Amino acid sequence: MKKTIATFIITQFLFVLLLIISGYVPGEVVRPHMESSADLLCSRPVFFTLTDGVEGSRVDRYADSILLNIALNFDGSLKQAMLCSYYHVPAQNENENLRETVGSEKAPEQQYLRYWHGSAALVRLFHAFGNILGMYAVNGLLMTALILILLILLWKRNIKSAAISLFIALIIGGVWIVPFCLEYTWTVLIALAFSIIVLMVKDTGSLPRLFMLSGMLTVYLDFLTTETLTLLMPLMLFIAVNKRPVDIRRAVRLSVSWGLGYVLTWMSKWAIAAVVLKQNVLPLITEHVGERVNGDIGLSMAEYLFGTVIRNVRCLFPLEYGGAGVFGVLVIIVAASYRTFVYWSPGADRRYMLTLLTLSLIPFVRFLVLRNHSYLHSFFTFRALIATVLGAGLMIAEATDKNRRKSNTPVKS
């Protein structure tokens, strides 16, 4: 417990320190690259699809523009690190606001303190050397490298079903779109990196701290996109590799560790901000909470809930690619169902499968709880379903394991 508390406190200190240090990068060094980034972001609309008519390929340059605007205005002060203020004119798009403040050094007046915006510190540091296009490229290369390392690691561990399931899940989740937007990147990188770390760690006693760190980093870097992915991908793969027998208590303990890291890190930002700003920051934070959960969009509750789920599911690849895409998905479902029922293994570990099923449903719970956010932003929140597809693949692999089918020996649950 002492190590866990110390890890939490030290990490919080480093989070604040990074925000402050990034502000000391001279403005004259950052601004030329920011100008280049602003021009790039203004060259297209704030929202556009890479493939016509495919919502799952929609890129969000709105959030990226705000992120760069915040990064530009870091000045090395603790106050600005907490406020995360940026220049904002309601009548303009955020990419235009960014270009205007880069060109004329407009003062930031719009606070955005409810998030940590740790990624803004990384953005400012990177802009000492290059523009946002370079960040997209680096993130793309890093994501690809992490995917390859994770797949190779699973394959070498002889957990080929997990490697195949993960690969399919990433494809269905349209992971190739992720590097085109900074907002989409952070949770995917965290999920992949911590999956690798969790599989390589030998001291299982450190796992709760690792999952806590995963939750903390998620809050620090993420803009509320696919946060559950940073819990579910590492946890599912850990369970798949260490499934004999399934330790449900450990799975719960790791989930709670992640949740505490996530929630307490968010609350610590607000507490630190309240102390630094010497004011009650809750009104600044809670003004958008009700909107994210249950904002009025002119739908009945049933339409709201059902629509939220449908809008997220339909973004999965290749459902939006016309009749051929829908047919392809139907073929996959029929083939998976056929394999499961025809080649069902009497020795399938039902407790293992039930654990995966429970975890696979968490993204849907998230969609329903944050229904306004998940409905309006389904074009990126749908990637939380990467974990659901991964879980489904692992369950099918377990249900049709030929070795257990030959032995015909049930696994005790």
What keyword list fits this structure?
22 helices; disordered C terminus; 413 residues
Furnish the topology, listing elements before pairings.
Layout: H1 2-22, H2 27-42, E1 47-49, E2 58-60, H3 61-72, H4 78-83, H5 94-104, H6 118-126, H7 132-156, H8 160-172, H9 182-200, H10 207-221, H11 229-241, H12 248-277, H13 282-286, H14 289-294, H15 301-313, H16 322-342, H17 350-360, H18 362-369, H19 371-376, H20 378-381, H21 385-399, H22 402-407
Antiparallel strand pairs: 1-2
Helix pairs in contact: 1-6, 1-10, 2-3, 2-5, 3-5, 3-6, 7-8, 7-9, 8-21, 9-10, 9-11, 10-12, 11-17, 11-21, 17-21
Task: Give your account of this protein's structure.
The chain is an all-alpha fold. It has a domain at 2-133. It contains 22 helices and two strands. A two-stranded antiparallel sheet has the order 1-2. The longest helix has 30 residues, at 248-277. The radius of gyration is 22 Å and the shape is globular.
